[in-house]
Write a structure and sequence with these properties.
By secondary structure, the chain is an alpha/beta fold. The chain is about 40% helix and about 20% strand. Strands 1, 2, 3, 4, 5, 6, 7, 8 and 9 form a 9-stranded mixed beta sheet that branches. Helix 1 runs parallel beside helix 2 (about 50-60). The protein is globular and about 55 Å long. The two termini are about 25 Å apart. Residues about 275-283 have low confidence and may be disordered.
Amino acid sequence: MKAIKFSVLMSVYKKEKPDYLAACLESLVNQTLLPDEMLILCDGPLTEELEEVLHTYKDKYSDLVNIVPFSENRGLGYTLADGVELAKYDLIARMDTDDIAVSNRFAKQVDYMSQHPEVDILGSNIFEFSDSVDHVTASRIVPETHDAIYQFAKRRNPFNHMTVMYRREAVLAAGNYQPLKGYEDYYLWVRMLANDAQAANLPDKLVYARADEEMYKRRGGWSYFKSGMAAYNKIYQVGLANPVDYIVRVTGQFIFNLTPIKLRTFLYKKVLRKDDEVRTGEG
């Protein structure tokens, strides 16, 4: 018997790949603990191929899959804010539609949240992979305790957003998701922490996250640096960080965004990530 009922919250838009979406959904319907709702928000019109994937799963899992279409592409912040309001259950798990959940992800997280009612937001570490989950290239390791998460959040995102499970009440108390392109999740986390939400990360790796060479290319250039700093300026205004944190963030972002692609890739993998010898496994 489940301790807590929960929803999975995802947003999909037209530029996503149908095969990635299908692999994601397959990982969710094969969990050792199934969600009680898979809430999939369509951020604007989708391609026929994406629609076909969604309706294949809707037809097969009609009691589980809840598809909500929006006529316009409004952006992730607005879409996820609606999702928090629309979810049937107070416990909500985030998931990206191009990543793959380890089969016991929800079982581990629901068990932890059941045993720790004081925790409002719970994440985990991730595998990063390219091509297939058999080709793990690195891991992103995040701090586990509330105090460590709070300190880490002053300079960097303390959660792998696609692993997070949170309580709706704490999200709404912090102002819900708000538009901040590329930083919607991080912006929510710092507002939750500033609002005294309690946080934790499991040491397990519970999601395989896609991280190909294109990702490293996208995270470079003057335009990316400027947009990143504009977003961090807003995050900084929440009040968690001090001027030293700000300087460290600006310096780090400048170095990582404006170095040549080969050096940037090396820095991401060797400094911001950890090489991982584990190629398969349940985390």
